[in-house]
Amino acid sequence: MTTHLETALDLAAAGVPVLPLRAGKLPFGNCATCRHTACGGRPNMKTVGACQCPRPCHGWAAATTAPAVLRSPAWGQAWREAQAVAYHPGGAGLTVVDLDNADAITWARQSLPATRTVPTTRGEHWIYLGSMRSANNARPGVDIKSTMVYARWLGPGTGTMTHLPDVVRALVVKEPSPVRHVTVAVSIPAGGGECRHRKPAYLERGIAMAEQRIAEARSAVHSTVYRTFLAVLSAHGRCGCLTDTHMQRLFAAAQAKGEGPRHCADAWSNARTALGM
């Protein structure tokens, strides 16, 4: 009878990163540094599968194709207790479309190109060549398993593996939030202070720079919007030159990044409060 370690070594030889699973289809907490998901399951996210832990990490980050690691004492007990073998699809350049019920399978047969298919307990895995961002509940009964997740090895399956279609990639593309007019009550500072703008171009340049700062935010959008509002109000909020049109431009830039009208209004009000306006 083939052991789980032997199965893992065969997969690793074929270039598929693998790891052992304990009961409940759960990974082992191999590394004390990341035990019980202390690392959040995604260490060193910039390099898929790379982990700086002193021992093999847990979850998808533990997946490896190195026979020496798979046979190492660090994993000896894990393989003796293993209930299944898992693999990191994205690390092998693959994507698994996990179809969890009959309705999902029907949708796949009607919407997706045929590819290698593996039966599961409740449905099927459709495996494509190509990696992408993973997502749970990409549509009813459908999970996408590729980068930064693991999938249980259930056998080689049947059929010829084909390239990942755009219809699968589109399942995890978030539609941009439409820019809407703000309907919540916000106000412009009354002004009355000394104008430091000297000419209208100074204010226009400041608003344009603020819009660009928000548009270029790649993370921490909430805090970027607040800090930008704070900077604009600090520079232009006390002399009366800032208008509703300027504010609407800033709100539109924030909403284009996914902020809702209420978030924009709260950030604006909090910035005014911080400045004593």
Give a short synopsis of this structure.
The chain has 277 residues and is an alpha+beta fold.
How would you describe this structure in keywords?
6-stranded mixed beta sheet; elongated; single chain; 277 residues; alpha+beta; 4-stranded antiparallel beta sheet
In terms of topology, how is this protein built?
Blueprint: H1 4-13, E1 18-22, E2 26-27, H2 67-70, H3 73-81, E3 84-87, E4 94-99, H4 102-111, E5 116-119, E6 124-129, E7 135-139, E8 142-145, E9 151-152, E10 162-163, H5 166-169, H6 200-215, H7 221-236, H8 244-256, H9 261-274
Parallel strand pairs: 6-10
Antiparallel strand pairs: 1-2, 1-3, 3-9, 4-6, 4-8, 5-6, 7-8
Helix pairs in contact: 6-7, 6-8, 7-9
Could you explain how this protein is built, in words?
The model is unreliable at 36-51 and 176-184 (pLDDT under 50). The chain has helices at residues 4-13, 67-70, 73-81, 102-111, 166-169, 200-215, 221-236, 244-256, 261-274; strands at residues 18-22, 26-27, 84-87, 94-99, 116-119, 124-129, 135-139, 142-145, 151-152, 162-163. Strands 4, 5, 6, 7, 8 and 10 form a 6-stranded mixed β-sheet that branches. The chain has a 4-stranded antiparallel β-sheet with strand order 2-1-3-9. It is of the alpha+beta class and 277 residues long. Helix 6 packs antiparallel against helix 7 (221-236) and helix 7 crosses helix 9 (261-274).
